[in-house]
Design brief:
Length: 212
């Protein structure tokens, strides 16, 4: 069957690379008046699907569609770093009431609890906060470290992990997001978050840029 058409932004990226390659991701982002982070998923998908090639310190160049690249192979090569978003980190001394306000103001389903070095100490889900809210307790007097899930009972990933591996962790734990961490001398530092929505969007976009 013939391939499904690329979306408008992916078409624009391909045309820019065809006309100007090799070209860096930052330069492509500048031409589209977007951030590098916004383009990262599109660039990863176009590369994994065989439309683009990328070389370190050189940039992207047009490769044409590689018919030998299957959607399964492409999925296996997708990395967490291409689809992670910014984490929302709170202090373990924050009150449950403040955490509820913070969660809704940031429009996220999970808060990550970090120390002064932003190293992972715990995770707060909507369920955790809702469960604590039921009853007559003063939420201003309950710090989140009392109700959070603590290490080592937290599933997390690194930005170099495959998206498939991270997706399996979400399914096995039945959770909505994973903290993305980087090992430091102080412990696992929170550098991002990966959600079910991010993974779903990645796989759908990849399917739409591959031959069925």
């Amino acid at each position: 069957m013939s391939p499904i058409e690329l979306n408008k932004r992916q078409d624009m990226i391909l045309q820019i690379v065809k006309d100007n390659g090799p070209i860096t991701g930052e330069q492509i982002a500048d031409r589209l008046n977007l951030t590098r982070a916004t383009l990262r998923p599109d660039l990863a998908i176009l590369t994994m699907a065989g439309f683009l090639d990328a070389r370190p310190r050189v940039g992207y160049f047009y490769a044409g569609k590689k018919n030998s690249v299957s959607i399964t192979e492409s999925m296996m090569n997708l990395k967490v770093s291409d689809f992670q978003s910014s984490p929302v980190i709170v202090s373990e001394n924050m009150s449950v009431y403040e955490a509820i306000l913070h969660m809704f103001s940031e429009d996220v389903g999970t808060l990550f609890v970090g120390d002064k070095h932003e190293c992972l100490q715990g995770v707060l889900s909507r369920k955790d906060l809702l469960r604590t809210s039921i009853g007559s307790q003063d939420l201003n007097k309950i710090p989140v470290h009392i109700i959070m899930t603590r290490m080592p009972n937290i599933a997390y990933c690194t930005n170099e992990e495959s998206l498939i591996k991270a997706a399996n962790k979400l399914i096995e734990r039945e959770i909505d997001s994973l903290p993305v961490v980087k090992e430091t001398e102080y412990g696992p530092k929170i550098v991002g978050r990966l959600t079910k929505t991010s993974i779903t969007r990645a796989f759908i976009s990849l399917a739409e840029t591959s031959e069925l």
